[in-house]
Design brief:
This protein is of the alpha/beta class and 263 residues long. The chain is built from eight helices and 13 strands. It has one domain: 4-Layer Sandwich (Metallo-beta-lactamase, Chain A).
């Protein structure tokens, strides 16, 4: 794998949004998108950091992608949100084995929907813990009762609205309800990168998306708490759509305010 100096990465972080997004995802030498299976792509964003993207077809026939990250730590790879489903996660783990050649030692999910925890069984087969908040664990178990499927997740911490949890190189933050009642975001300070999950929207997929478990009235307040907690975001990874920067928070707020103002 080709190397890339931290000096150049730091320079990328100082670019304006449009230029930064284009450079981060298209121009530097190691970031070619790798199609590792029919559903899964991997793309290196920075030294020790990879975006994984799963494409699935929805019931209405629309193709939709979901984002997650792979983070290299001294102990091994952390998976931030599983791939979208069991087999895509198996494919992602195989790619890590053969290309990165480092063990996956831990995973974190930002809420309890299938595009975040759908690979839980694939991780459990390899004894890789999938950690979530106590709130997400309770929701997953409740869903399991109706679906007769118990997903193997570990409750790592109980977070109240506005609380943070420092977990090695990753900070968990619960901003309050939004896309779901349990959605959290993850902050990677070494990259000034926020994993927004499905609490943060992106223009590629207009609209609020799946709001079956959403609190649309509270969602904008939660987005504002994210802005207040992380004023120096340089890179923002939404749950779906293209990676950009903190402008995605303003975009998401605009969507929420438009939805609330509708009669």
């Amino acid at each position: 794998m080709r190397t890339f100096t931290f000096t150049l990465f730091a320079a990328l972080l100082s670019l304006p949004l449009a230029a930064q997004a284009q450079t981060t995802l298209s121009s530097h030498p190691y970031d070619k998108v790798q199609q590792i299976s029919p559903e899964v792509q991997v793309e290196q964003l920075a030294p020790g950091l990879w975006l994984h993207r799963t494409e699935q077809k929805l019931s209405n026939g629309m193709l939709f992608t979901a984002n997650g990250l792979l983070l290299e730590t001294p102990q091994g790879i952390w998976m931030l949100d599983t791939a979208w489903g069991y087999y895509p996660t198996v494919d992602l783990l195989h790619w890590i084995d053969t290309v990165l050649q480092k063990p996956v030692v831990k995973a974190i999910a930002t809420h309890g929907h299938d595009d975040r925890v759908g690979g839980a069984a694939a991780l459990a087969e390899r004894n890789i813990p999938l950690q979530v908040t106590a709130q997400t664990a309770a929701i997953v178990q409740q869903h399991a009762k109706t679906a007769d499927l118990l997903l193997p997740v570990q409750s790592a911490v109980a977070l109240k609205q506005g609380e943070k949890y420092q977990d090695g190189p990753v900070e968990w933050f619960y901003p309050g309800a939004g896309h779901t009642s349990d959605n959290i975001v993850l902050w990677l300070p070494q990259y000034k990168l926020l994993v927004g999950g499905c609490a943060v929207k992106a223009p590629r997929y207009p609209g609020l998306g799946n709001i079956a478990d959403a609190d649309v009235a509270e969602w904008p307040h939660s987005l504002k708490r994210i802005q207040q907690a992380y004023p120096d975001i340089k890179i923002l990874v939404p749950g779906h759509g293209d990676v950009a920067d903190a402008a995605l928070l303003d975009y998401s707020l605009g969507l929420m305010q438009g939805a609330i103002s509708q009669p």
